[in-house]
Amino acid sequence: QEVDLEERLGELDLRSDSDVPDVPPPTDSTPEILKRALSGLSARWKNWWIRGILTLAMISVFFLIIYLGSFMLMLLVLSIQVKCYHEIITIGYRVYHSYDLPWFRSLSWYFLLCVNYFFYGETVADYFATFVQRREQLQFLIRYHRFISFALYLTGFCMFVLSLVKKHYRLQFYMFAWTHVTLLITVTQSHLVIQNLFEGMIWFLVPISSVICNDITAYIFGFFFGRTPLIKLSPKKTWEGFIGGFFSTVVFGFVFSYFLAQHQYFVCPVEYNSETNRFVTECEPSELFQMKKYSVPPLLQAVLGWETVDMYPFQMHSIALSTFASLIGPFGGFFASGFKRAFKIKDFADTIPGHGGIMDRFDCQYLMATFVHVYITSFIRGPNPSKLLKQLLILQPEQQLSVYKTLKSHLVEKGILQPSLRG
């Protein structure tokens, strides 16, 4: 018997959380070899070993990708973004039984392509100006990039309006909103991750590693010492794990930053060399990554026995990054837990045995990406002569000459250039 969808949705606002439609539970994707090897253990310890083995495997792959370079890291971020988007959109399909909505699955992915085209086009315009200048076909795309992006989005918007079907209106608008919120969570945040990477790989590695460290150490401290529940949204989270994870992460971030700050490969901004068609990380390290001597606070002098200590200024910033990763970053996980509870699911997917979906592992990273971007723009980044020069090279010759004359006149007035140099 056909159910009137409009009547069912008309009661949606009156339903409690317990009335949300059930979602089929995810299947167990644990490899058979692990199941057999751990068959004699209790469920608690079995999960411990599965999570541990898969965590080490993921960390190993992550280090391999770091070794392969910046471009591979960007591809990794893009791949994670697409997978997270897929997991969240799929939950919407299942919860609201929206598989049969006309065009909607295609429109969801179309909007993803549109938003990625906009953000990554902006990145190309900012960081690959010299490369674009040499190719006429790309000049057109960059010059009218925002108009093209808006036209593409407008096409999808019109397609959505044309796809509206009687008795499905409310459900279609639910899913339209679901798609756009998902885009906000995944695409914009992953774009910020890549922006951070261009500032120097250290701004990518320290925040991400701090979140990973906090996740692991909080789990270990909670597993062995956890007694006091932390938050109702995540019953397994404990104060012991939260506090242990905090101190462990701050120490890890401080030490990890010390080792990374010694290498140009990690501290130099990632730039594209149009001559070699490769990303390069070569520069004279900024003051953030040059060893300095600091006075130890009197209170600590009695404990440590040191009056001064040599360290990199970035290590002080790493404390701020690690503190955020430990105290605020977990709220991304709490938010994800609330989302999963609202829709009666244990994990976003079953992609990684013992861990759930990709989104389950990166729910805290998105808050971290935004914080790092805001932190850099607020406290670190100053005028960038290299980026300004790239923008000047894009100008027409007469525009470049005008800038040159204006700058020369300004320098003469400041007394930096001699008046005799006027021409």
TrEMBL record:
Q: What is its EC number?
A: 2.7.7.41
The membrane-topology field of this record reads: Multi-pass membrane protein
Disordered, as annotated region: 10-29
Q: Which residues cross the membrane?
A: 48-80, 101-120, 140-162, 174-194, 200-226, 238-261, 314-336
Instruction: List the record's Gene Ontology CC terms alphabetically.
Output: endoplasmic reticulum membrane
Q: Which InterPro entries match?
A: PC_trans (IPR000374), PC_Trfase_euk (IPR016720)
Q: What is this protein called?
A: Phosphatidate cytidylyltransferase
In its UniProt entry, the species of origin is given as Pandion haliaetus
